[in-house]
Design a protein that fits this description.
The protein is α+β, with helices and mostly antiparallel strands. It has a domain of 110 residues. Helix content is 33%, strand content 24%. The strands form 4 sheets. Strands 4-1-9 form a 3-stranded mixed β-sheet, with no helix packed on it. Strands 2-3 form a two-stranded antiparallel ribbon. Strands 5-6 form a two-stranded antiparallel sheet. A hairpin with a 2-residue loop joins strand 2 and strand 3. Helix 3 packs antiparallel against helix 4.
Amino acid sequence: MRNGRRARGGRWVRAAAAAALGPMLAASVGCATLFSGREQTVTVRTRPAGGSVLYQGQRIEDGRAVTLRKEQKTPRFDVGAPDRPHYVDVTYQADLWLIGDAALLLLGVIPGLIAFGVDAATGAWRNFDAEQEIALPSAAAAETAPSGEPREADRGRGRIQP
């Protein structure tokens, strides 16, 4: 500071630093978090058709869409009976926006690590399959008749002995 004025060089240095660091910090949020979001809508398909599953206590019928939150823990559907829950994980692939995180890692280690960390912590790195096909455990229940006795068709086949 000279005669009550700041040196002009200091202002230029701050502007150059902001211009260089601003885009790096904005990009380091995580490519998948920015472009894919933290929620995704999927369609539930049950096998056999016409069934239903539970997601966070809400019944989802076959063919209906549900919005899933991308979190660090993999979402899952409950396909069991009320007294015996049975969970099926949502199927997913790695999001292609992770390539952006990798590019940031190559350009600057710190922004790339931050981007990977944010995407991993938020679960945004997952890209859920648009159709979730869920096999219901009713196929195992069909092995026995309602009375609990073996079905007549299965006698003598070696699968169920009388």
